[in-house]
């Protein structure tokens, strides 16, 4: 394998100073995006951070061209107005590797989307071929926007399956076979020559929903991606929740049918084995010509009885697991993402019925269940946002 393996001890643990700095800078950026130019005192009040912490973060961001500082007055006293520099030439790239698609986006520090491109890939493609294609697409987008490689802050990458944050490697049993043992960070850094950060698609989808989704104000949000795999991204108290190792939200591997279908994780009856789009297509393969997820969506919208029944059965299992999540976390909103989100109420209603049967009335009534409006863009958008979040690693 090309490149060098990074020492896991060099990466930040969830409770480290590095991790804390990342979260703090993320809070400052989000405050500036929401309310515009603010004094450091205002930022301290809005974020709950100390004035000394705000001063350090603002100094770093100014040094790196992320914010401008302008003298002003506040309550009759001299102060400094901090404003996020939006289109200052600095961009982050997000790359989303789907089962059969590849999307690359460029995003400015204020989360304005500069450019994006999406292509369809063959099933079971070689990840390294995907890396080469991603570099070609990123090069085109930089040229289209007149952006130099030097202005690229970094690249965020999303793949299906959990990532062990201790060494940034895909977790075997949660990723498709082609991605097992592939060091995505090293492979892409060798190709692109810029820092690369990695996370799974559900986690990135949850981040994207808080920025570009309809429920961006939610501080407790669950993003459930239902596709060929099933996973959940968690936003708790306004921050992505990654646990001790990064392996969180693996609801696809919660058993829902005792002695059910064999799952790629090695167990039986997992939600993914029973209710993923792959499982749905397998059930339909003997009675209909439906072969792809796109065909499934079209058939459901056309009222195909068999397709509707398969959706109903899967939704019942999904709603049960979502209910368990809500009972534990009590989120404000649960966002259903993935290729079935375009079905809207057709899938939300049966999920909602099962959800309501498995939670307390108060949780049911205080939790919104909605479909994502980001289509398949959430993963790549969240990956780009992750670059700006991770930038605080370099704060002094």
UniProtKB/TrEMBL annotation:
SUPFAM superfamilies named in the record: Actin-like ATPase domain, Winged helix' DNA-binding domain
Xref: InterPro entries: ATPase_NBD, HTH_MarR-typ, ROK, ROK_cs, WH-like_DNA-bd_sf, WH_DNA-bd_sf
Cited Gene3D superfamilies: 3.30.420.40, Winged helix-like DNA-binding domain superfamily/Winged helix DNA-binding domain
Annotated segments matching region Disordered: 1-25
Composition bias, Polar residues: 1-19
Domain HTH marR-type: 23-78
UniProt cross-references to Pfam families, sorted A to Z: MarR_2, ROK
PANTHER family: GLUCOKINASE (PTHR18964:SF173), ROK (REPRESSOR, ORF, KINASE) FAMILY (PTHR18964)
Family according to the record: Belongs to the ROK (NagC/XylR) family.
Protein's UniProt name: Transcriptional regulator
Species of provenance: Frondihabitans sucicola
């Amino acid at each position: 394998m090309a490149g060098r393996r990074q020492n896991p001890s060099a990466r930040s643990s969830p409770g480290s100073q590095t991790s804390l700095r990342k979260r703090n800078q993320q809070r400052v950026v989000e405050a500036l995006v929401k309310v515009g130019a603010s004094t450091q005192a205002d930022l301290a009040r809005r974020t709950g951070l100390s004035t000394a912490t705000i001063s350090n973060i603002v100094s770093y961001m100014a040094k790196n061209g992320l914010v401008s500082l302008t003298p002003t007055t506040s309550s009759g006293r001299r102060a400094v107005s901090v404003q996020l520099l939006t289109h200052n030439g600095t961009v982050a790239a997000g790359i989303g590797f789907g089962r059969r698609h590849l999307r690359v986006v460029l995003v400015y520090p204020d989360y304005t989307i500069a450019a994006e491109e999406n292509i369809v890939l063959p099933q079971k493609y070689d990840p390294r071929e995907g890396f080469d294609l991603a570099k070609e697409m990123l090069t085109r987008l930089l040229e289209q926007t007149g952006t130099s490689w030097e202005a690229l802050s970094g690249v965020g990458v999303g793949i299906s399956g959990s990532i062990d944050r201790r060494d940034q490697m895909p977790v075997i049993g949660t990723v498709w076979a082609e991605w097992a043992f592939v060091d995505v960070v090293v492979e892409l850094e060798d190709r692109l020559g810029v820092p690369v950060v990695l996370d799974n698609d559900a986690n990135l989808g949850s981040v994207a929903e808080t920025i570009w989704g309809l429920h961006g104000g939610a501080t407790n949000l669950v993003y459930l991606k239902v596709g060929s795999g099933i996973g959940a991204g968690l936003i708790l108290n306004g921050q992505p929740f990654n646990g001790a190792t990064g392996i969180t939200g693996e609801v696809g591997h919660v058993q829902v049918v005792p002695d059910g279908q064999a799952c790629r994780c090695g167990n039986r009856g997992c939600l993914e084995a029973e209710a993923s789009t792959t499982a749905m297509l397998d059930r339909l393969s003997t009675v209909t010509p439906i072969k792809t997820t796109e065909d499934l969506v079209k058939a459901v919208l056309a009222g195909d009885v068999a397709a509707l029944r398969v959706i109903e059965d899967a939704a019942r299992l999904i709603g049960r697991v979502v209910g368990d999540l809500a009972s534990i976390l009590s989120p404000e909103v649960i966002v259903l993402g993935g290729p079935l989100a375009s079905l809207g109420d057709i899938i939300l209603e049966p999920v909602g019925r099962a959800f309501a049967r498995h939670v307390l009335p108060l949780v049911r009534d205080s939790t919104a269940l909605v479909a994502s409006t980001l289509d398949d863009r959430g993963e790549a958008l969240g990956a780009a946002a992750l670059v700006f979040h991770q930038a605080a690693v370099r704060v002094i």
